[in-house]
Amino acid sequence: MNDVNAVTDPRGTEGERLQKVLAHAGVASRRVCEDMIVAGRIEVNGEIVTELGRRIDPAVDLVAVDGIAVQLDASKRYVMLNKPTGVVSSMRDDRGRPDLRRFTERFEERLYNVGRLDADTSGLLLLTNDGTLAHVLAHPSFEVSKMYIAKVAGKVTPQTIAKLTRGITLDDGPIKADKARLLGVSEGRGRGDGATSLVELTLHSGRNRIVRRMMDAVGHPVVELVRRQFGPLHLGSLPVGRTRELTKVERGAVLTLSRGADGVREARTQRDAGEMRDADAPDGREAHEQESM
User: Fold this and answer.
1) What is the pTM of this model?
2) Are both 78-142+232-284 and 146-230 of the same fold?
3) Nearest 5°: phi and psi at 210?
4) Distance of alpha carbon 160 from the chain centroid
């Protein structure tokens, strides 16, 4: 077994030079990366590095530029999906319903979904083979925020919006939205029958069908529900049923969130556990798939 200290010791001869690793990751040219190191803009495992002779192991060490994580492991893939309604958040459904396999078949890696959206909810779903990141983004203890647009029955008032942010009590305990705002109201036919409202809700809870239950509790059942944001990721103009790989900036954002959730040491522990889950999880399903909106 290699000595980790030998790998990361700037005076050692093992590993790769930091500027070479950064250049290979697409940060900048090697010369520019050297200037960034000298300027104190590079961190390795949470510590600023200024020595040009520093060597690291890209498979072990965590690197950031200006506080933003850099992806060094090219084997990890991060894909955004705009999940259609009627599709279950599973890589294989034992009831034969449409599942996520149709969206992952073209990728060589064994991807699986981070968290869940119920079959009647569309929107942003992240697919990855990165167990550490999946653990952080999906586990409720890390309180990753999500933003939804809900089309609901009836005319929502400002008083109802205020109630959602103040908090309500459901069967499984109190809950409140981090943010809520009314986007618009559509009049129904006749004397107001059939009116609907668009409500934007931001919350970090991972409780089952929480958006639908919250809106039911304030008298406005959900007609349609779309998740537009998941952590630092935004759905943007991605069409329903389409996928795209995350940009370099998006990858940096989600990796930074993953590493910052509980520090570098915890991130390493979770990464090791994530690799075990990658090998053991049936049909590539992540262990923390409890969120269903």
Assistant:
1) 0.80
2) yes
3) -65, -40
4) 29
Encoding tokens for residue 211?
């958006």
Class for the domain spanning 78-142+232-284? alpha beta
- Quote the CA–CA distance of 293 and 291 in Å, as a whole number: 7
Residue count of the chain, please give it. Answer: 293
**Number of neighbouring beta carbons within 10 Å of residue 166:** 10
| Number of C-beta neighbours around residue 86 at 10 A | 10
Nearest-angstrom CA–CA distance, 99 and 284: 13
For domain 146-230, give the fold.
Answer: Alpha-Beta Plaits (3.30.70)
Active site residue 35: no
| Structure confidence at residue 211 (pLDDT) | 96
Name the amino acid, one letter, at 233. Answer: L
- Report pLDDT digits (tens) over 13-70: 578 999 999 999 999 999 999 999 999 999 999 999 999 989 999 988 999 999 999 9
Domain map of the chain by residue range? 4-69, 78-142+232-284, 146-230
Query: pLDDT over 90 for what percent of the chain?
Result: 67
For residues 124 and 96, which has the higher predicted lDDT (pLDDT)?
124
Q: Are 240 and 232 in contact (CB under 8 A)?
A: no
Handedness of CA 278, 282, 284, 289 (dihedral sign): negative
The topology under which CATH files domain 4-69 is: 3.10.290
pLDDT per residue as tens digits for the range 167-208:
999 999 999 999 999 999 998 765 556 899 999 999 998 788
Q: Which of 93, 118, 216, 262 is catalytic?
A: 118
CA distance 218 to 201: 13
